Amino acid sequence: MSQQPCVRTAEGLVEGRRRRYGHAVFRGIPYAQAPVGALRFAAPVPLRPWDGIRQAVDFGPPPPQSVPHAGPPAGSSPAGTDWLTLNVCTPDPGAAGLPVLVWIPGGAYVAADSGDPMYDPAEPASAGLVVVSINYRVGAEGFALLDGAPPNRGFLDQIAALEWVQRNIAAFGGDPGRVTVAGQSAGAGSIAALLTMEPARGLFRRAVTHSVPGWHCTRALAEQAAAALADRLGTAPTAAALSGVDPWRLAGELTALSAGLPGRRESWGRLAQAGIAMCPVVDGEVLSETPWPALAGGRASGTELLVGHTRDEFRLFSVMTGRLGTFTDEDARTALELFAPAPDGAAAYRAAHPRASAEELLETVYSDALFRMPSLQLAEANAAAGGTSFLFELRLGSTAMGGVLGACHSLDVPLAFGTLASPTGKGLLGDRPTPEALAVSQELQQAWIRFATTGAPGWAAYRPGERLTRVLEGESKTMPYPEESSRRIWEGHAPAPFDLVRPGPPTGDSGAEATVSL
């Protein structure tokens, strides 16, 4: 008989592998049928049970990826089409009642891969957590608004994965009543949406959200984006018409559409400036409204929430696009015009930062609008809804690339997972992380573990008046929220969905220089 760990799920037996740490790891377990053929662009369909033992050794294939990752040539589907899979790492399948951490990877809603080495679960599993990571549909497969298809299919996939956890995690040693969902960037934005969605209620107890993005589309804009994508293929924006297009070709066309967004800025506004043509849509069906007013208005219940952002969120994109050091006064004016809260936000930013360079002002506005203020306001809205919020800001600067990255977007992920030696970890922190980076990594790991276990990360909750925030750096401290000037500028201005500036065709606008290109 095999000496490898074997677990019976509600759908059938799965056999994983024992890692050198002693953990049992199960990879590529399907939680719904593959969304291809007749099921493409459909809501996730329950699995059929299988006979015998299913090998759960390799990660499932990633869903088709768009910006920022280029897809493979048309006609190819790397490693298969079974995109709706998840992975489980457990300290002991024979245990009972262990806390569970479910990781939802991010990537601007157009890319996500649970097999990324940055998400290696060894460290949290060593601390006694059962760690689950999931794949879900992204880009056009998950979020294009198409006639004949449910909207926000990526969110429906995430709900199906969480339902699988409720059915099966006890067999892996986990407690279905102690599930914490965690994510960064689009993963955090997904969790913010799940907090307000009726079908997700009762599927998790706590939430961890790093760098929550304020990215949603109105139906009108989402319809235009889907039509523009279909037009590139010479077809209609319907599920029936697009189902015959190779998935990776569709992903590649979305990448190309996103690259051409500067020419649509006069009609698509902030979405065009953000550089990603597809994101969740406020559809009135799956997602009835954005998370901030839903929570603040009492239409969703608060929870135990650990939320944070980095100090220099936008710096990563300045470096990735080669724009660092080149932003102009015109670029800063564009950022203020499109992303500062109306009507007085632009003037307020200039008053708050009178000696800032054009680049410093632009980075502050983009960091606030895209990640910092949505994260802060989620903490505030969750507290208003009766939940308990804990807030942090990562101030530890990267030493990679001569330190130009600062405390940038995504730096917190390898720190939280303890995966500093992963390719992304090395790219962000260098081959030899500093003692300060090691200390912050240890603190953030412990915060996750404490929070998933007890509901408290180790510092005081964020409350109106005090606004206590954990600032993570060489010598971390708890203090009033450090970005107070930005908080005041954005007070009363929850992130609004991207919308059409005016109807009509693209104008050929020449604003490519300042495009965010996330």
UniProtKB/TrEMBL annotation:
EC number: 3.1.1.-
Top-rank lineage group of the source organism: Bacteria
Keywords (A to Z) from UniProt: Hydrolase
GO molecular function, one term: hydrolase activity
Stretches the record annotates as Disordered: 56-78, 497-518
Keyword Ion transport assigned: no
EC main group: hydrolase
Carboxylesterase type B domain residues: 4-458
InterPro entries xrefs: AB_hydrolase_fold, CarbesteraseB, Carboxylesterase_B_AS, Type-B_Carboxylest/Lipase
Family: Belongs to the type-B carboxylesterase/lipase family.
UniProt name for this protein: Carboxylic ester hydrolase
Species: Streptosporangium nondiastaticum
